[in-house]
Design a protein that fits this description.
Layout: E1 2-4, E2 24-26, H1 36-53
Parallel strand pairs: 1-2
């Protein structure tokens, strides 16, 4: 079993056999190591922008799967 996050061509095609594998988890190119010090600052910036402008950046497009 495994987790896959990055592919040569993104998004991964709907017909790709990896989608059918029960022992593989596919993430939308968001996996990584989180540094808590920088994450708190990022969360604050994103929240402030949302509060001020009512919008968010870098949202996952669930239809495109990334």
């Amino acid at each position: 079993s495994g987790v896959l996050d990055v592919f040569k061509q993104e998004p991964l095609k709907k017909r790709n056999l990896l989608w059918e594998q029960k022992n593989i988890i596919i993430t939308p190119h968001v996996a990584g190591v989180t540094n808590i010090k920088t994450a708190i600052n990022q969360i604050h910036q994103i929240y402030s922008m949302h509060k001020k402008e009512g919008k968010l950046k870098n949202l996952v497009n669930w239809k495109k799967k990334y």
